[in-house]
Design goal:
Elements: E1 4-7, E2 11-14, E3 18-20, E4 28-30, E5 44-47, H1 49-54, E6 64-66, E7 73-75, E8 78-84, E9 92-98, E10 101-105, E11 127-132, H2 144-160, E12 164-168, H3 174-182, E13 188-191, H4 196-204, E14 212-214, E15 223-227, H5 233-236, E16 241-246, H6 253-259, E17 263-265, H7 273-283, E18 287-293, H8 295-304, E19 308-311, E20 319-321
Parallel strand pairs: 3-4, 4-5, 5-6, 10-11, 11-18, 12-15, 12-16, 13-14, 13-15, 16-17, 18-19
Antiparallel strand pairs: 1-2, 1-20, 2-3, 7-8, 8-9, 9-10
Bound molecules: zinc ion.
């Protein structure tokens, strides 16, 4: 096969000078989505227009090549195509094709979508580089629509008893997606200051959000507050409030305890264990490399099922022949 997958502070397809979400600044790199652990000031970045719009100014690449979904792009003798990853607005998987070689890099990925949206499509590839954040079997999340409904009921109960419901969500992506998911229930929102630029960017990038104001001291009755899980100073100034952690980490007792929320909901923008297995199945890959999170654990579970798999990060600096 005419491609090699390499790990050197990020995934690379060697011989084609293509870096995938590298942790250090590179000449040409694919940025799969706008979360800060993926965005760097590369000389030139390949990304979707929405991802570019959502990357904070301080992390913007110096140059870029914007690419829409399903628009093949030539890269030397190879072809690169982006597909939606279902993780957040603009998030993309990258399919690399050269002669008979097909390599799929998922970036952060989520298969099951709430609100009747179709399950994320996974292109076929011989080699799959898979994000394995929740790669342990105790991470099995409930149906997203039922969970959104449970969150809505929890918020309504709090508001009915004149208590402010506070949802603890990652500021970029999660906050906006939960607002959209809850919009059908008629809620309005007050956002902690760290969520504010992200909500503005989301709307600018083409996804308008339901009515919200910036949280500023007291909150007018009837609004659902959203704040990032860490650093709840602004939240503590509220009078009567109740908190709920909205995260896949809700399935991890230790993590939930650290955040000390009154309730937890396992709504995640990442695949759970079963969804990760499904990504592998749908891709039809003969070889899987895991990156991020429980890489070793998930690779071991795949090997138990007879699939060739290893953690890519563990083999730092090693070129792996496909
Ligand atoms: Zn992410």
């Amino acid at each position: 096969m005419n491609a090699q997958v390499v790990w050197d502070r990020g995934v690379s397809i060697s011989g084609h000078r293509l870096w995938l979400d590298p942790l250090v600044i590179r000449t040409f790199a694919f940025i799969s989505h706008a979360h800060t652990d993926h965005a760097r000031r590369h000389k030139e970045a390949l990304l979707t227009p929405q991802t570019l719009a959502l990357i904070p100014e301080s992390r913007r690449p110096r140059g870029w090549r914007m690419l829409g979904y399903r628009e093949p792009m030539r890269r030397g003798p190879a072809t690169v195509t982006l597909y939606p990853a279902g993780h957040m607005l603009g998030s993309a998987q990258l399919l690399f094709e050269h002669q008979d070689a097909r390599v799929l890099y998922t970036g952060d990925i989520k298969l099951r979508q709430p609100g009747g949206l179709p399950t994320t499509h996974v292109p076929k590839a011989q080699v799959l580089v898979l994000e394995s954040t929740y790669g342990r079997p105790h991470f099995r999340f409930g149906d997203p629509d039922s969970t959104v409904e449970a969150i809505a009921r929890w918020c309504r109960r709090a508001l009915d008893s004149r208590v402010t419901p506070v949802l603890l969500c990652h500021a970029l992506g999660k906050t906006e997606e939960i607002m959209l998911a809850l919009s059908g229930y008629g809620f309005t929102f007050a956002l902690e200051k760290r969520c504010v630029p992200c909500a503005r960017a989301y709307a600018m990038a083409g996804r308008p959000l339901p009515d919200w104001v910036e949280l500023d001291g007291e909150v007018e009755p009837g609004r659902v507050v959203i704040a990032p899980p860490a650093g709840k100073d602004e939240v503590r100034r509220l009078g009567r409030y109740r908190t709920a952690l909205v995260s896949g980490w809700a399935k991890d007792a230790e993590f939930s305890r650290i955040f000390g929320a009154d309730a937890t909901f396992d709504l995640s923008d990442h695949c759970d264990f079963d969804e990760l297995m499904e990504v592998v199945e749908r891709s039809g890959a003969e070889q899987v490399y895991t990156v991020h999170g429980y890489t070793e654990d998930f690779a071991r579970h795949l090997r138990k099922r007879g699939i060739k798999a290893s953690a890519l990060e563990a083999t730092e600096q090693l070129a792996l022949a496909l």
